[in-house]
Design goal:
By secondary structure, the chain is an all-alpha fold. It is built from 22 helices and 5 strands. Helices cover 72% and strands 3% of the residues.
């Protein structure tokens, strides 16, 4: 029989005690990775068990709803997230096994053999383009794999790409994080997009320099400063202008293209005096000038990826799959609520337990797979080679997919039980200090869910209500949630699992987590201070809210 269950945000009668209880699964996950150095799937499994026990005992959540939340979360981990990663790695494997990747390496080396600048071109610029187009971990998987192929050590490649992926996350997947949140809270997306663009200026400017500093210290900054300055300024200026005048959909894509083009052109006229490499390669004299046709053919898999993703984002394409359209049968909904009951959140709204499966229209993984199929056709890759690439991909991704499923299952248990909302409510009770904690809520949200979109949907209303109670324009806190979330991406268990899978570090998630954790904490403290400065001293830069 169907039952209705109401979330309780303060099950222990004291919001801070309840928040401490809700924080225990997160603490458990941190200890499993940082102290006990367990593998990702082991840490995920233990965390799911603890979160389920707390949901059952402390939050009095029915067992059937805990089970439904686990299934819903695990299924979301498989589809669309794991599907996107599998398709992206398969495309990369095709490039490697067809021999195209060797030419790609040569083409990048012809621009610069310097690993520091290669990280900026691929990890920062190309990664930002992919984040704007597909999101969901695909950019880190592709760029980290590319950098390993160019000679970087796997841990460095994965860690640097996770850090590089911060600046574009707020506008990722064609602006969905901001659009989804503004639809939820009932305001126009343009003002929040503009505020995010303004808040991101110091972060977007500093990330490229920070990447160089991590690789080669102050010496590296001095040797590469002109090129990095071109990349950082061109990206940040374009991101600022596009987010303020075009909305949330295109800032990542436009900024990435402008920055990549500007930096590549600049490197035709300027070269670093010293070449920095993580490997022992010293002689670059044998890198001959490549013909344009050969280079284009080698890059064709990623050109096809861009074309497919652009098509997938077009309204006319999505219209074919709308309800009642010719291909609407490709969208399926799996219902749990008819069996298990329903959840009502603290605001009286129903929490969806259904799982929507879009096999084509809303599925970036299918677009990537089509690019892979077209690559096989256009590059005339033998079926045996394609089968080998697919087999290797599925074999290597099996355990990471389970890890991703477990951490997303934990995220859904935390969300559906009210644990996530308990943490947010505790921070919201801090009064004027909430200006500092506002981005931290988004940071925790992305750590929990692996998605800036999910974090914005989870805490958007809370940010709006808190802004009203403090007499601050809600645009600031809504933007702060998204901006705080971008630096939570580099420590999200989902992102860690994806990055490790891409570079062959499966089972060593604790090492990568340890590498990025301290930087993520530093960034979120900086963003909290920056939000306070805006809230109390620079309110003039906050756009007015426009209701829908």
């Amino acid at each position: 029989m169907e039952q209705t269950w109401q979330q309780i945000l303060d099950p222990l009668g004291n919001i801070w005690l309840s928040a401490l209880m809700a924080f225990l699964p997160i603490l458990c996950f941190l200890l499993c990775l940082l102290v006990f150095k367990l593998k990702g799937y082991q840490a995920g499994f233990i965390t799911v068990i603890l979160a389920s026990i707390i949901a059952l005992i402390t939050y009095d959540m029915p067992f059937s709803l805990v089970g439904a939340s686990f299934v819903q979360g695990f299924a979301n981990g498989m589809w669309p997230i794991a599907w996107i990663i599998i398709a992206a790695i398969f495309l990369y494997k095709l490039s490697v096994k067809s021999g195209s990747f060797e030419i790609i390496k040569e083409s990048v080396m012809s621009i610069t053999p310097d690993h520091r600048i290669q990280v900026i071109l691929i990890g920062f610029c190309f990664g930002s383009f992919l984040e704007g187009a597909i999101g969901f971990g695909g950019p880190v998987a592709i760029t980290a794999a590319l950098l390993v192929g160019l000679g970087l050590k796997p841990l460095h490649a994965a860690g640097l790409c996770l850090i590089a992926n911060t600046a574009p996350v707020a506008f990722g997947a064609v602006g969905i994080p901001i659009i989804a949140m503004t639809n939820l809270v009932g305001i126009q997306q343009y003002e929040v997009s503009a505020m995010v663009g303004r808040m991101l200026v110091p972060l977007s400017l500093s990330v490229p320099f920070f990447l160089i500093f991590l690789m080669d210290g102050v010496k590296g900054l001095k040797e590469t400063f002109p090129a990095v300055l071109v990349a950082a300024v061109s990206f940040t200026a374009t991101q600022f202008l596009s987010s303020n005048y075009l909305g949330a959909e295109l800032p990542d894509i436009i900024s990435a293209v402008v920055s990549l083009a500007a930096t590549t052109i600049f490197l035709k006229f300027w070269k670093p005096q010293n070449i920095f490499r993580f490997d022992d390669v010293k002689d670059f004299s044998n890198h001959t000038q490549l013909e344009f046709g050969k280079v284009f053919k080698a890059w064709l898999p990623f050109v096809l990826l861009i074309i497919c993703i652009i098509i997938w984002t077009q309204p006319w394409f999505k219209a074919f799959f709308a309800k009642g359209a010719i291909f609407d049968y490709t969208q399926v909904t799996m219902a749990f609520s008819n069996i298990t009951g329903s959840i009502i959140d603290a605001n009286g709204k129903a929490v969806g337990l259904n799982l929507g499966l879009s096999f084509i229209a809303l599925q970036a993984g299918t677009a990537i797979l089509l690019a892979a199929i077209l690559t096989i056709i256009f590059l005339r890759i033998k079926s045996s080679v394609a089968e080998e690439a697919l087999g290797d991909t599925l074999k290597e991704m099996a355990m990471p997919c389970i890890t991703i499923g477990l951490v997303v299952a934990f995220a859904f248990i935390a969300k559906n039980s009210g644990m996530s909302a308990t943490l947010g409510t505790a921070f919201a009770s801090t009064g004027e200090a909430f200006a500092f904690f506002s981005p931290m809520i988004g940071w925790i949200g992305v750590f929990l869910t692996g998605s800036d979109t999910s974090s914005n949907l989870l805490f958007g209303t809370l940010q709006q209500v808190s802004a009203h109670s403090l007499g601050i324009k809600e645009t600031l806190f809504l933007a702060a949630n998204s901006v705080g979330g971008v630096v939570g991406k580099m420590i999200s268990p989902q992102s860690i699992a994806i990055a490790c899978a891409a570079v062959g570090l499966v089972g060593r998630e604790s090492e990568l987590f340890k590498y990025t954790f301290k930087y993520s904490v530093g960034f979120i403290i900086f963003i909290g201070i920056w939000t306070c400065i805006i809230a109390f001293f620079l309110q003039g830069i906050i756009p007015e809210v426009v209701l829908k």
